[in-house]
Structures are given as C-alpha cells and as structure tokens.
Write a structure and sequence with these properties.
single chain, alpha+beta, Immunoglobulin-like, Pdz3 Domain, 3 domains, nine-stranded mixed beta sheet, globular, disordered N terminus
C-alpha cells in the first residue's frame, strides 16, 4: 500500500462457508455480485453455500493484506438475510468479536442462500480500502465483500465468482473468465473457480469508459494496463506514456529476474470521485489516481511512483512476505515489525524504477528524494519513537490519524525512512565492492528465489534478510540495519545520499519535483523556514515542534488571516520571508483560533528554504548510476 491520501469507498459484500460445513461441501461456493446500481453506491450480492445441518460461524475479513491493520469495513454491511428452502435462518453477531456471525443450519438443509447489500457513504475518513464507485465506474475489492468459515484457511475455501455490470460497461481483472453471457440487458461474467485467497487478491475494475492496453507485448507472461475513467477524454494515454510503462515491465524483469504470476493487470481508476491510493495484489494492482493523471504531464509526474511501487509489491510483499504478515486467514492479527522492509524497500525500488523506466527524469527523482530526505530530517518525534516502533504499531498508525503535530507523533515513517535506509544499504554494497555488486544482486537472489513461479507466499525473517545481504557482500548487516531502525537520533540517516555523491542542502527556490507539487496540489512549503504546514487558504495543518512557528505560539488548526497587515495569500507570506531575511523584520501574523484572534511575530530571518540535492564534486556518482536503466 502507498501512503497516498484516501477517500471514498464503495463495496459489495458476500459471505462464505463455516468451518463445520467444509467437509460437507458438494462443490465450490457460488458467489454473484451485482454492480448495476454501483452508480448509486449500492452493490448487491448473492451467495449459494453448500452446507450441512448444525452450528455454523461465518466471519468477515478483519486483517486485510496490504492494509496492515484490522481495517475490514464491516460497518457498511446492510440487508444481510440468510435463507434455506425459502425459510429465513436467523443469525447472531458475536458479543465480543464484531466480525463473527453465528447461526444454526436446520436439519435437511443442503444449501444456504445469503443476500445482502453493501452501502458506502460519499466520504469515508482514513484508509478503508474496499471498492470505489462513481456514476461510470466501479472497483470491486473482494476482501470487502466476503464472509468465510471461522478458522478456515483462505487457500482452502473454493469460490466460483461472477459479476453483473451495467449495460455497455467493460471490465478487467487478473481473474480468468470461464463464461461471458448475456443476462437480460446486463453482462454477466463468470470467472473460473479460485480459492478465497486468490479471490481477495484479485479485484475487478469495471466502467463505461474503459480501455485495455497491452504492455511490452514481447514479454511473457503478459502485462496489461486496464483503465476506467469518468469520461473518455481521460483515457487518451500518449504513446510516450505507454512506452514508459512498457519499459517498467522490462526493467522489472532485469531487476527481479523472475515473475511470480500468470499475467499482470495494472487496474487504474482515473477519477476525482473515488479514493486516491494504491493497493498491491499478486497478479494486479489497484491504482486510484486523479482523473487527469494520464493527460496532464504535471499530474503524471506527481503520480509517477505509484504503479512502480505497487508492481514491486508483487515480488516484495506478496511473493516474499515478512513471516508476521503471512497469516493463513483474515482474522489472525498481523505483526508489522518488518514493514520497513515490506514498504521501505518497496518505496526505494519503486522510486528507482520510476526513474529507470523514464516515468521520472533523473532530476525529478533527485528532487523527490530531496523532499523525502528533508521531511524525514525534520521529524522531531524520532527522538522518542524509532522507525521500528512505527512499523510495529502500524495496525493503529495506519488507520489514518490527524496531520496535526504529525512530525511529533510520527505515523507511517517506515515508508520514507525505510527508503533512506535501503539507499544506504545499496550505496554501501557499491562502495565495499568498488561498484562490482549492488542491491540489484540482493534483489535478484532474494525476490527471484526459485525463478518464475505461480503466485505463492515465501515468508522471510530479519535473519533471512541479513543472510541474503551477507551472501552479496560480507558485513555486519544485522548491526547496520538495527542501528538505523532503532535509532533515536535527531536526524534522519542520510548516509546513502552522501555515499551516492550528493548532499542535502537548502536554497531559495524549489526543486523540480516540489515545483510540480506546488503548482497542482499544495501551497509553497514554509516547513523548512517558518516550520509551518499551511494550505492555500491559510489553514495551518501542522507545526514543526521546536521550530520558529512553534516557538511563536502557532498551533495546528489555527488560520493565518493576515501577513504583515495584509490579507493572507501564499505569495504574501513568501514576500514576508524575503523582506525579513538577514536583518529584516520578523514575520507578523494575525491568527484566528476557534473564533478568537491574536497577533504574533515569528522571529525568523533565514529567508525561503527549499530542499534539493547538491552534487559533491570529486566523489563517486553512485546515485546517478543507481537510476540508470538496466535494459539496454
């Protein structure tokens, strides 16, 4: 999963079988989901379960792969009715486990029919995963639509899924169709029978405006870019964009030297009406972006690392998975202590692949890395909470907390700081071997273990990671890694940047990546000058603890009404920084705080400050070597 901002969720729900009926199954569960009312955010599901008489407990998935926490959106279930032979079967929710439902199958019953709706509100706070819909598209995540037997292994519950879509809609999925037939005015697709594990791992993207593009057609297994949008104009992907995505496929082959899927589908939702985030799957990725992402060059740049990141998870996270996250069903709590490998290494590799494939230029990559390094270097919360704790506590931190005082509380820092740690590892290997070996060699051996395989999970431990690195170049890697993830140092680990031939510095103009971000989604950054996170409207969403703004009394939730006596605009605040540089005046602000106003002066005279990477002449340019494509 990425750290992207999350929003709307819409889903259908279905239910599975109970432990007591596993032996009695006469065949797979038949599951059908009706998306014809998806534009109204109402999805219908029917399931036919082979059953035997007696007690039965069904459970709703709680711990969702890739979401790293108990995020199953059970609160949106409605209309759950179970019947057999036309007679209603009552169910009771467990008094302690809200995700479990108890019922008794009557004597003589062989089939249990379950009908239900799943309703999603227009706005959903935090990360809720699941399906998303708009008037013209729907992304169905099966994890949000299934109940299954308590105690059953997801790999052993077999389901034959089918889906109905509105007239004229098309769909894409890693699931393999078994039958495509007309059902009234709608199109019903029945997929081949799969395990619950594979079903949950294989979302379906459907839409009125839908396009599928084959990528790197000379490569097997096959790769597809499946896109659904709210309008046909947003599907006009340029030949250049198709080529960089095709190069991404080629570059992953060179890096991982293996593929662990039968085919791969990038499922891209181009819409401003649904959540924006990414979620990894073994044979596909759920990538939800702004509607203009493929037609606006700036937005394409800003979303540039999303597809490489989620694609990388097919190897790092799905195939090779930390043992604590490799649970055999969705009720067992996950242990996230190695998320700095699962997500941190994926963040590093995804960004490098964005550059190697041409999605980003080398300059854009360095600008993005400068932003990451500077942000992690201004996280005073690291003095009390180390990166290891952010990973261990992911199940509570990943639910989506407030941005207020985020630099002091810390949250998903194992993503970005993990990236800096793995850059440190890569440049250390290159330094010790005089460029003869690199992290590429570790990746090929560790994630390419066993060569090409069908989808499966090969768990690993911290000791496995250390052994894998030592096989590339002997070193005390255990101490190297633990010193970084357990550190309470005030500053981030920037050794990888420095060993890469650059240093993090600050100047009066934004780097190329920051400029793109400021032009579309944010106001100019005042974080590295005043220590303030300020929206374009003047709302203060975060304050750097012990920074100039904090010392002057600014707090998150306040609003800047005026700057030096004039109505606030970002440009006026920038002008105040310039005026106050050196021996100039402090920055005078009028702040509104829950209906009350006060005037403060921030005693700051350093001018504008924006991060960028500066080349250190006379040092090996390892960072430049890292982002060079491996495919000639």
């Amino acid at each position: 999963m990425t750290g992207w901002r999350l929003g709307l969720v819409a889903a259908a729900m279905v239910v599975g079988v109970g432990t007591g009926v596993a032996e009695a199954q006469g065949g797979p569960i038949a599951l059908s989901v009706d998306l014809t009312e998806a534009p109204r955010r109402i999805l219908h599901a029917t399931e036919m379960l082979p059953v035997a008489a007696g007690p039965l407990t069904l459970v709703y998935p709680k711990w969702i792969p890739g979401e790293h926490g108990p995020t199953g959106p059970i609160e949106n279930l409605a209309g759950l009715v179970m019947t057999t032979g036309g007679k209603r079967v009552e169910w009771q929710r467990d008094k302690v486990d809200m995700f479990a439902f108890h019922l008794t199958v009557p004597q003589g019953a062989t089939t249990l029919e379950v009908k239900l709706d799943f309703l999603t509100p227009g706005e959903t706070p935090g990360f809720s995963g699941g399906a998303s819909t708009s008037a013209n598209l729907a992304l169905l995540s099966w994890n949000s639509v299934v109940l299954y037997p308590e105690g059953a292994k997801a790999a052993e519950v077999m389901i034959t899924p089918s889906i109905n879509v509105p007239p004229g809609w098309k769909l894409g999925s890693a699931l393999e169709p078994a039958l495509l037939a007309q059902s009234g005015p709608n199109t019903a697709t029945t997929f081949k029978t799969v395990s619950l594990e594979q079903l949950v791992d294989s979302p379906v993207l459907a839409g009125r405006w839908f396009k599928e593009v084959a990528l790197a057609p000379e490569i097997s297994p096959k790769h597809f870019l499946d896109m659904a949008a709210d309008g046909p104009e947003d599907l006009e992907l340029s030949k250049e964009h198709v080529e960089v995505f095709s190069k991404l496929v080629r570059e992953t082959g060179a890096l991982y030297r293996s593929r662990h899927y039968g085919s791969y589908h990038f499922l891209v939702t181009l819409s401003d009406q649904v959540a924006h985030f990414g979620l990894e799957h073994h044979q596909s990725s759920d990538d939800r972006v702004n509607e203009k992402t493929f037609t606006d060059d700036t937005r394409f740049t800003l979303a540039g690392s999303l597809l490489p990141h989620e694609f990388t998870h097919s190897w790092n996270g799905k195939y090779r998975r930390p043992a604590g996250l490799a649970t055999d069903n969705y009720q067992k709590p996950m242990e996230g202590d190695l998320l700095w490998v699962y997500e941190g290494l994926t963040e590093y590799l995804g960004d490098v692949l964005a550059a190697r494939s041409g999605i980003w230029t080398a300059e854009q990559y360095r600008g993005y890395l400068a932003d990451v390094a500077a942000e992690m270097d201004h996280r005073p919360g690291r003095t009390w909470r180390n990166i290891q704790d952010t990973a261990t506590a992911a199940q509570v931190l990943g639910a989506g907390g407030s941005s207020e005082w985020d630099n002091w509380r810390l949250a998903l820092d194992y993503y970005d700081e993990g990236e800096l740690i793995w850059l440190d590892v890569d440049t250390t290997i290159r330094e010790k071997t005089k460029g003869k070996r690199s992290l590429n060699d570790f990746i090929a051996a560790f994630h390419g273990l066993g060569g090409n395989t069908p989808p499966k999970v090969v768990p690993y431990t911290f000791e496995d990671v250390v052994a894998g690195l030592n096989a590339i170049v002997p070193n005390d890697w255990a101490t190297f890694l633990r010193e970084r993830v357990d550190s309470h140092e005030a500053h981030a680990p920037l050794g990888g940047i420095e060993r890469g031939g650059y240093r993090l510095v600050y100047g009066e103009s934004s780097n190329v990546f920051s400029k793109a971000r400021e032009g579309v989604t944010e106001s100019p950054s005042f974080w590295y000058s005043l220590g303030l996170g300020v929206s374009k409207s003047g709302s203060v969403y975060d304050v750097l603890k012990e920074g100039p703004g904090d010392r002057a009394g600014v707090a998150p939730g306040m609003k800047i009404v005026a700057v030096n006596g004039r109505t606030f605009t970002p440009d006026l605040l920038k002008a105040a920084l310039k005026e106050g540089k050196g021996s100039g005046p402090g920055v005078s602000l009028i702040l509104e705080n829950t209906g009350y106003f006060k005037v403060i002066t921030i005693d700051y005279h350093g001018g504008e400050q924006y991060p960028f990477l500066e080349r250190v002449e006379g040092t090996p340019d390892r960072l430049d070597e890292i982002v060079k494509g491996m495919v000639k």
